[in-house]
Specification:
The protein has 371 residues and is mainly β. Helix content is 3%, strand content 49%. It has a single domain, classed as Neuraminidase. The strands form 7 sheets. Strands 1, 27, 28, 29 and 30 form a 5-stranded antiparallel sheet that branches. Strands 6, 7, 8, 9 and 10 form a 5-stranded antiparallel sheet that branches. The chain has a 4-stranded antiparallel sheet with strand order 2-3-4-5, with no helix packed on it.
Length: 371
């Protein structure tokens, strides 16, 4: 196991993250990050979400804004996956306005466009037990999120979203707080959950209420916390805080036929409050693999700045394999806006890598009139 090199000092981590040559930076809050393909057989792209925009970021080229969410909304989360098997990834974008909605976005005829009517509530792309990207949704229960049933969602060619089979998970399981590590066949897959204590647990896939393993310490980072209001059963206004874990990427990262999980680790106390969002101090990128019982850490990155909002793996055009981390690097003050940076790390060591040393082909320019 490779330990991080931050020595536990947040001030040193901030300075290091701020000084490192970044792929991209902005005076904004980066709340989403994903990698994938915008053309079949093309190069893997990096997409970052901040405010209400999703931008393609490529070393050595100008970033390109690919898609904008509707006015008066804000992107809270971004995930990608090839839902229809055509070699091009779709996005699921979690939006916040007066309510929380999810939007499926895909590249069609050279532009990114919404593929269906927005889903009221929580929608997610994830690998199922057979390693197939699938849409999963969760409805509210009593106007509260993360308490309704979980269902597979079918996206029809005409743009409609419909509920499919229910998932065999305990009632009240948060949509973003579980994942499968696929095995040699669906029966050999492993089911893991993110506990409310921020520990990781393994569940019996045949009886998900049963826990077979739990980590000794808190591992899961929930870097973004949202405060929202909702009406209770009797019409009264209630406040609620929702802690969102960063998306967990499940893949065969080294091509050995075994799936691993890439996640953001290191939960801590809130460090920053911005509007109705809180960002939590600390965080790093961790690669975990299934052991005989539970998960074991293979390696991790350095501690980066105040908060890692999201992380994803990326294969560059020059053949290099990296982790990309969206890092919040500056406090909000009276006369200063927050700052976010997109940093590269070596996937084999977890060490920071200068963006200047990485090569890739530039992205396509969006067509005129792109919305």
């Amino acid at each position: 196991m490779l330990a991080g090199c931050a020595h536990g000092k947040a001030a040193d981590a901030i300075a290091r993250a701020a000084a490192q040559e970044a792929l991209w930076s902005c005076q904004c809050l980066a709340t989403g990050l994903a990698t994938g393909f915008d053309e079949a057989g093309g190069e893997q792209r990096i997409w970052v979400a901040a405010g209400r925009e999703i931008t393609t970021v490529v070393p050595g080229a100008e970033p390109v804004v690919e898609w904008r969410a509707p006015r008066f909304t804000r992107i809270l989360r971004l995930e990608s996956g090839d839902l229809d098997g055509d070699g091009i990834d779709e996005w699921v974008v979690l939006l916040e306005a007066n309510s929380v909605r999810s939007v499926v976005v895909g590249r069609r005829n050279g532009t990114w466009e919404t593929l269906a009517k927005p889903w009221n509530g929580y929608l997610r792309i994830m690998l199922d037990a057979s390693a197939k990207p699938t849409l999963v949704a969760q409805s509210s229960a009593g106007h509260k999120p993360f308490f309704g049933p979980l269902h597979r969602i079918e996206l029809a060619d005409n743009g409609t979203l419909s509920k499919g089979a229910a998932l065999a998970l305990p009632a009240g399981t948060p949509l973003f707080d579980f994942f499968w590590l696929p095995g040699t066949d669906p029966a050999a897959s492993r089911l893991f959950s993110l506990e409310s204590s921020d520990q990781l647990a393994e569940r019996d896939a045949r009886s998900p209420k049963s826990r077979t393993w739990r980590s000794d310490s808190r591992i899961v980072a929930r870097p973004v916390e949202i405060e929202r209001e909702f009406r209770g059963y009797f019409g009264e206004q209630q406040d609620e805080f929702i802690r969102l874990a960063a998306p967990i990427e499940v893949s065969d990262f080294d091509g050995d036929g075994v799936f691993e999980a890439l996640l953001v680790g290191g939960a801590a106390r809130p460090a920053v409050v911005f509007e109705n969002m809180r960002f939590h101090q600390g965080g790093d990128v961790r690669l975990l693999a299934a052991g005989e019982r539970g998960l074991a850490e293979l390696r991790r990155s350095a501690l980066l700045g105040r908060a890692v909002a999201a992380a994803s793996s990326w294969s560059a055009g020059d053949g290099g394999r990296y982790w990309v981390a969206a890092v919040w690097t500056r406090h909000r003050a009276v006369f200063k806006r927050p700052e976010s940076r997109l940093l590269l790390l070596d996937a084999l060591s977890g060490d920071l890598v200068s963006a200047l040393s990485v090569g890739a082909s530039p992205p396509r320019q969006p067509d005129d009139g792109q919305q």
